């Protein structure tokens, strides 16, 4: 099988490296950057290139692009995809992408499947991609209703060969709501927190909490701006909800209300333990 990987950044580059290292499939890569293309070839992440990014020779196409670029690529190459080809996108939001390409896929005889790898690091770009990026990770998948079960089973086996431990099937709506809380909110909080007036003086005053809170502030602002705005309704709700919860702590501290503050902290501790038990069970 010929697997095309479009967009050789952190996720796309890791996909290409994983497919080449862990399967017998031929990997054809593409990136708008000539430098990245040849870096991928020199590092043996791909067997070759898709001519001008055209997917015509590929049976499976993995898209490691920003959401809007994903939509643009699919629409631009709608008639180039082989009949029966499968196109999987890896963008961090699903509603905006899946809603706009379903009809395009149906009209042109290829299958589109939305997906989101629950893996990554705080740095971006092909340089930081690895063949083992997805080891033990979850792949969230948002197939359209009626997607062939045999195809989904084949995709499941393919992605598990790349290192994924499990596939989580859900709707685009649930995906975006959950990602706003589990990922996007954390990046907003980290970005805001690191801009505190005392941040430059943290050295010798942190046992690790500061690094934990600021790690993901080292983000790609262009990508995350697009992701935040494409999921703005869910993310704004999460930010507002967090502000309300934080206000409760501030109010108790200002009032020197030990009972309320202790209760708030107890609730947080117990919630954390409950979450840890879920992780341990998994």
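^ structure tokens above, recovered residues below v
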């Amino acid at each position: 099988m010929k697997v095309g990987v479009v967009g050789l950044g952190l996720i796309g580059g890791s996909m290409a490296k994983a497919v080449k290292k862990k399967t017998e499939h031929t990997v054809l890569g593409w990136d708008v950057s000539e430098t990245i293309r040849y870096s991928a070839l020199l590092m043996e992440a791909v067997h070759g290139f898709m001519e001008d990014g055209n997917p015509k020779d590929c049976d499976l196409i993995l898209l490691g692009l920003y959401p809007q670029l994903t939509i643009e690529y699919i629409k631009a190459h709608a008639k180039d995809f082989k009949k029966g080809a499968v196109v999987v996108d890896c963008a961090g939001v699903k509603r905006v992408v899946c809603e706009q390409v379903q009809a395009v896929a149906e009209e042109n005889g290829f299958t589109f499947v939305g997906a989101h790898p629950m893996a990554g690091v705080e740095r971006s770009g092909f340089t930081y991609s690895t063949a083992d990026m997805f080891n033990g990770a979850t792949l969230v998948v948002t197939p359209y209703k009626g997607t062939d079960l045999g195809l989904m089973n084949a995709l499941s086996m393919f992605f598990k060969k790349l290192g994924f431990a499990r596939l989580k099937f859900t709707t685009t709506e649930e995906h975006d709501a959950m990602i706003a809380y589990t990922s996007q909110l954390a990046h907003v909080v980290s970005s805001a927190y690191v801009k505190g007036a005392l941040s430059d003086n943290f050295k010798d005053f942190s046992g690790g909490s500061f690094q934990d809170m600021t790690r993901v502030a080292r983000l790609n602002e262009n990508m995350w701006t697009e992701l935040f705005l494409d999921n703005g309704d869910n993310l704004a709700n999460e930010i507002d909800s967090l502000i309300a919860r934080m206000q409760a702590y501030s109010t108790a501290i200002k009032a020197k209300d030990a009972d309320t503050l202790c209760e708030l902290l107890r609730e947080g501790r117990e919630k954390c333990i409950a979450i840890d038990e879920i992780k341990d069970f998994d």
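The beta strands are 2-6, 26-30, 48-49, 60-63, 86-89, 111-117, 138-142, 166-169.
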